[in-house]
Each structure stands twice: as C-alpha cells, then as structure tokens.
Amino acid sequence: MNQDFLQISERVLKRARAAGADDAEVFLSEGTNFSTRVRQGTVETVTEATTRALSLRVFVDQRVARASASDLREETLEGLVRRAVERAREANQDPFAGLPEETAAPPSAEGLNLYDPALEALTAREKIALARKTEQIGLELDPRVKNSGGAGFSVHRGEVYLANTRGFQGGYRATSCSLGLHLLGQEPGNDAQVSDYWYSATRQWARLESPEEVARRTVERVRRHFGARKLATQEVPVVFEPLLAAELLSDLFAAVTGEAVYLRRSFLADLLGQKVAAEGVTVVDDGLRPGGLGTQPFDGEGVASQRTLVVENSVLRNYLCGTYSARKLGRKSTGNGTGDGEAPTNFYLAAGPYKPEDILRTVDRGLYVTRLMGQGVNLVTGDYSRGAFGLWIERGQPAYPVHEVTISGNLRRMLQEMEMVGSDLEFRGPIAAPTVKISAMTVAGT
C-alpha cells in the first residue's frame, strides 16, 4: 500500500469530518504515461508525463459536493476540503446520495494480473524503435500501400488508492500498453486513397502483438478497400466484424446503465426478466477477468468488482449500477460505479459456436461491415443509423468493397435478430465482441 497516499487520505478525511461533513471519500491517483508517434520513419511526437491527483466527495445532510486537485500540498488540500463542505451545504438535498453501505471485501489485486514490471523496464529508445519497426514493415508489404498515417506505441503505469469515512481502504497498481498502425493505399490509375488501421492493447508486455503481426493485419485491412463500388438501397443481412461489433456493444452498455434507466433514457427500461435478444445471446460485465483492460478489484466507490450477467441466453437479467442508481432503482450496486455514473469493466458479448467464415457462408447477399462513421444512435427509442464501409457478400463470399453507405435499424430489433454469434472473441479494450450477424438491416446507398 502506498504509504504517502494512506497518510494524505487520513488527513483529508479527518479534515472533512472536522469541517462538518457527515461522510467523505478520497480517491488518489498517480500515473506515468509514455507515448510516441512515428510517421514515414520520422519521430513526430514523444511525450512522457507523470501526474498525481486527488478527488474528494463530501456529504452533508444528504447533500453532495465534489472537488479535485493536482497540487497535494497541505495548504492546498486544506482549502479544498473547506470549499467542498461549503458547496455541499448549498447543494440540493437528495435522499439517494451517500457512500456505499458495507460490502464484501474486494479481491486481491495481485491475483488479477494487472501489473507487469517488464513494461517499466522498457527504455524510451526501445519504445520508439518498436513504433518505427511496425511502420517500416507495413510500408514494405505491398507496393500499393505507400503512405502512412503513423505508427504509435504507448505505455501507462498507474496506482490508485481509495478511502472513505466508512472504513474502506484499498489500492492497486496497473499497467497497460498499446501498439497501432494506420496506413494508406492507392491503386494504380486511381487517385483516390483508402486507409485502415490495426492495433494491439494489453496489460502484459508478453501478450502484445508483434510489429510483424500489427503491420500484416493493417495491410490486409487496407487491401480490402481497393476497387470499391456503390450500392443501391436495400434490406439485407449485415455482419459486423469484431471491432465494429464492439462499437455496437458500447451502445448496448449505454442502454443498460442504471443512470440511463432511472432517467428513462433507455429503450431497455422496465424490461428486466424479459427476452430482449435472440436465443443464445449472452452479455456479461466481468470486473474480475484476469489481465482484462477493464479489470479492477473495486470500482470508483470502493464496491468490490464482480461478474454480472446482463443478458443471459436472450433474457435481460441486470442493469449495471453504481451506488446512487442502485438506490434509485431499488437494486444493489454491481461494482460499476464511478461516483458520478457508471463505467464498464470487461463488458462483452459471449462467444458463440460459429467460425467467422461459416457466418459469411450463410449470407447469399449482404454487407460485411468494416468501418463505421458518425453518430446516429437514439438510446430512448433504439433507432440506429451510421455511415459505413464494408465488403459486399454474394453467395457466401466477399465480392467487392463498398463505400458511402448508411446502415440503419433499431437496436432492440437488432438484438432480437442477432441470429449468429462468432467464436472469435478477442479483448482489445474494456468492451469486446466477436463477429455477429444481424438477419436484416437497411443498407442505404445511391
């Protein structure tokens, strides 16, 4: 346990009580971030920064106020506490405000595989060389791929500590790293450029994809865009590749947060216990998945992380709640609280039985989505409309790429018509999904 953080939190909580707070919570963080970007072999940026910050919540007669600081000197924190308590007294009373009740002790951070000392051992030169090598390999794999949007490598090391006046104390260290590449291609005799990207992200250095793998995947994705055509508007099956299925799942997460439900901003409000998706569809939020990029022993309020079934074999079982929304809905916190809403841990669509190529073989005519653009999701009604790039499928095989189309439907109907789920689930962030097939959506073209 960080003794410096322990001592700071004890002093701040003591001051908050002395200033008149009924309860208080302190969240301390310290992190070092390194990032570099290389383009055409030239290092464009190298950034390394270490930050320390304190966030304070105080409660006075069911009134709440928040304050934060990056200056942790005694005189600064003394004024911070005083002003926070003063603002709380001026806030509106809220019967649902307050710290979590006593909960189960969080799991040991050591068992969750969150920290890798190997990442701290990398030198700046090694990190830059990794990005440069990734770009160089990508530019040599195909003569039609001759320009680069850049290769980047980043490393994060952080430590957090949370304590409150109800007796909770907890902290942990975590690391993460990512390697990505963006390339541009041009077909002979065609002035138009096409582009795509790929990346790998993990908490463990040994699990990061190699420069060769990242470059190869990027070039393969660029090649898919050569020879693009336009489409006539029609209703057809739509298949989302994993990266895009994860974007679809992020919309689902927004609809199952306790905040969205109690504010009546979700098309899934009042549907607990009802069938909301196709048979076999299961969605999980798992804060205990070892090594997950969303894994944590406790949430932003000190509630122990857990594995929560959100959708179980098509049936909506749970909303994801922090302490406040749980009280509003008469439920229990699921360990997703931030103190000001909810956040995912490892939120994912469970893998299905189908290989991606087997899913494509079931499509006589349809669209395989490889890129989404813009924002067009109404969480109240579920209406969905996004610009898209993709591959047109004929007789179960990719026929040619398509650009400048819009795919539209309704999220509730899309869940119910998610007729095939792939076996290719990979985690590249806190939200993940395998390949999925929606039986019918409108693809609007020319």
Can I get a quick summary?
The chain is α+β, with helices and mostly antiparallel strands and 446 residues long.
Give the mean pLDDT: 95
Q: What's the CATH topology name of the largest domain?
A: PmbA/TldD fold
The H-level CATH homologous superfamily of the largest domain, spelled out, is PmbA/TldD superfamily
| Helicity, as a percent range | 10-25%
Could you state the order of secondary-structure elements as H and E? Answer: HEEEHHHEEEHEHHEEEHEHEEEHEEE
Q: What is the number of beta strands?
A: 17
Q: What general outline do the C-alpha atoms trace?
A: globular
Residue fraction in strands: 35-45%
Taking all Cα atoms into account, the compactness measure Rg is 24 Å
Do you know the CATH architecture of the largest domain? 2-Layer Sandwich
- Secondary structure category: alpha+beta
Separate helix tally: 10
CATH class identity of the largest domain: Alpha Beta
- Low-pLDDT parts are none
Q: Characterize the biggest β-sheet.
A: 6 strands, antiparallel
What topology, given as strand order, has the largest sheet? 3-2-1-4-5-6
Separation, N- and C-terminal Cα atoms = 61 Å
Instruction: Give the count of structural domains.
Output: 2
